[in-house]
């Protein structure tokens, strides 16, 4: 609490200091004759610093930071600064047309960038997973407030309408502004309450996503009508058909074009941020298409964001790059400029103040009532309906964009624009505490609790969070088996296969490895269906043929970004348990985690078989993070193949060690974690502890008892060649079955693994 108060005090002081910059900027501009470019830079600095400072204060208080950026603009505009010191406000923010156009250009680009980011955060898979409840909530949640807003516009004073604007067009804008929830703010509060993975939290966010999507289509059609100034049946039909055709193209052929463009750029270009450039170009192209069909560019940017966000090749790193520049620059400028356009001093007029209160009441009752009705139709409880109604009542960023577009097109007057902004701020600030109150009253069911536990395990997992897989295989037995495992592990993830000729351990079978990958992926899809998991979607598999695979080839491919390198090459293990020169070269060119599929010298030439009737998968564990990674990999394979699994805890322990020692409790904790991991994958496991023999001896003895595969998590040592330690060497020298080794990164390693390597107690 003390730290929170201190942080709050610091940010209040910084916000005050930022506002205090205003007189200095105004004085400098007046005395030195600052150029329009200089004033433009000063505007940017003030909007960024003041918006960020107030946003930080609001976030500490549990409110959305984006509202701080809007409030910062309001304070710097005629509502406060223009009221207290009008000369300074006019000098910095109300200069000539050319200077205003500079900051407005950044704001307009900010609208597109914000819609791109909103689309990228729109998780359509979440909507599909939650089910139909969110559709009734979003339908009623849009229809009721839209009807109230449209009706209110027909009875409002004529002075609130822009000159030459029709009531019907103004009603469409007002109805839209009242009916859409802000996905960003709703998701922020739900996430802050740790409800994002709860069933109700997902329903609330999914409903907001659908509302946002419907809203932008309505906005596009409304803007098409507003452009003509009146409703014409022919133009309206053209606009609706154009939007429908655009949406149909985008989510069919357009989806594939976007996916392929991002993948091709990522795999072809070597310059920095090439994928970000292409994403921005895609956004611009789709925005231009919507502009050509007579609707606003925001629809194109939003749909582009959805397609980019669904791209299987989009990594968290690339998404973070885009999010950083949008959040740091474009959002504060856009919301700040929107705030500058509002003039809260007009609310001194009692009539306008009462109308604003009425607008807030209409918006709140309409939104809460519509969402509550939708929840009732979906069969939800009354407490859940109240929570849904509270959650959908945040307007925030979406309404600001709608109102800004209406103002710029001359559909909304400045007074009505100010009223809508006031409504957006009030409903947004009220939503977090009311939603928190409603969510705290909801219990958690048994099925939901199990799902949350499973997802919590996934968050810590390695296999579940793999984004892209690089596979190096040859045409032999090991290559075929490795390709099948790649299909099992990497199902639903983009994959690149470097197909090597060279030394093999069987007759060449060119092209068969791709069939094995598809077989593994198909087995994964079937397993997901049987276990009621989310369906595994198909992902692109790129194949590249190389007569002689070199380290340079692998290194060049690895630069494109992969979560793991899986290698399956024949004759890769020597009789002494070491690795061939070719495997050392290939693996040495990749700095990330390795998965090596190996056939020791003692293993025959037959292709390994995994299944319920085959031998067990043996997994040595010892409590290190990399050993847990090996256990997770084995369980992922077993979940698909149905092979039984045996977890073998190996550690050197004294004969008479008491049960209450630290090492004993550690073993119990490790095995308990492994059992939870097995429950997540739906795999029954057998556990055993071997503490008095050397690790390699214990593993080798267990491997001789109906074991079809050994999976080991191993610590990767520093050096030019692959070195995993004496235990791994001993196992490879004596194993009667194939061995899969999964390692950590070349450099990064958990402290527990470092200690294991230093003391010689690691699995490797």
Query: Overall mean pLDDT score?
Result: 78
State the shape.
Answer: elongated
Structural class: alpha/beta
SS element count, helices: 29
Unreliable stretches (pLDDT < 50, length at least 5) are 506-510, 748-762
User: From the alpha-carbon coordinates, what is the Rg to the nearest angstrom?
Assistant: 31 Å
Distance between the termini: 46 Å
Describe this structure in words.
Residues 1-28 form the signal peptide. Residues 520-552 are annotated as: Disordered. This protein has 29 helices and ten strands. It is α/β, with parallel strands linked by helices and 764 residues long. The chain has a ten-stranded mixed β-sheet, with helices on both faces. β6, α25 and β7 form a beta-alpha-beta unit. α9 (167-179) packs antiparallel against α18 and α10 runs antiparallel to α11. The two termini are 46 Å apart.
Give a quick precis of the structure.
By secondary structure, the chain is of the alpha/beta class.
